[in-house]
């Protein structure tokens, strides 16, 4: 192939746009740190952060590494290294990456071209898109994993009561309005606009049903208003009774079930008539939705939460709005859209790619969920893989993700490979939890960590708490009792 000269003007126009590096608004935390390091001309730190993201398929980081080697910021100009990184980024259709790789290739001597091809192929084999998918990411298969096949799904028999105070905000607001009316009777005409009914909202929870027909691991997938009714909804599920799922005529744990809870809907005519304060908020969000990303995201959440209270003319589907934000690279929207597809629509093929995109940008919730799905698949078409699960759970746990820390400890116990260093770290994580954030399994895991540290006294204490609280939820704690008997014996 004839040697070509790189179009440096073109390269610099793109590579230097907006500064030396191209970074998205919602970037991997490491990329943000790398960009800051570049501004300080600390290129070594930038390289470490970029490579950390590039090694899990972050095309932006791969592209930026191509820039650094192309401009000689890590020593001498290295066109072969630069070409390899640009080509890797092109596998994810990163803008201009393929073009730059080809331009660099064309500028090399024939002997260098052969070296460049060999080196790039090695990189692709290590961290190319196919290699990473096989090594790190859950993969949807064409055939079922037979041991994961559910022949009869879990069924709710009795739902636990909802204990919450629905009118606290409403009472305070209405009492204040009435007092103002006493002071100023002319406000009577505005009374209907300021009086509100009990709080309203929605909570969607993903949970597992164990072989004893009791809920395990409830997690909020979506709530609106954020966290307003979470505790009441989770408590209701934990006190619910199910007929467990069956596989080959044996009861099994079923993962990834979904339950929606709606509040303040019964007897309500419309959002405008029954919740004028919320309707006002709705109109503000609607008008501001195109002004910025945050407003558009909140508007999508509002539509999702209050769908039942909006008229046909008022309601706009939140799904395309969320998808639009996901396509713009908004990590929280990518994660929400993925969860919506996976859990509510039961469509792994539509949801999993968005979860992976968010994880590649270091979004801890997405990293955790990838680990969770690999550890406890919700579908027979997604094979269980403890190695992938541990990789993603550990990444999220190191970002202080509480659920990832808990699940990682659980996985270590299942694999029976807990060492004393890890046990000490796990107990530090658990010590930072409030008592009401600890589940019976938390106390069981704490007992296991103390056993690893040869502290039987504390192991007995936490195992006793696990058994007691587990029994309060009517869990089957027979295995925990056996361990308790062994320690006491």
From TrEMBL:
User: A Pfam family this protein belongs to?
Assistant: Sel1
Where does the chain cross the membrane? none
UniProt keyword annotations, A-Z: Plasmid, Signal, TPR repeat
Q: Give the superkingdom in one word.
A: Bacteria
- TPR repeats span 440-473
**Which N-terminal residues, if any, form the signal peptide?**
1-29
Q: Does the keyword RNA-binding apply?
A: no
Stated name of the protein: TonB family protein
Organism expressing this protein natively: Catenovulum adriaticum
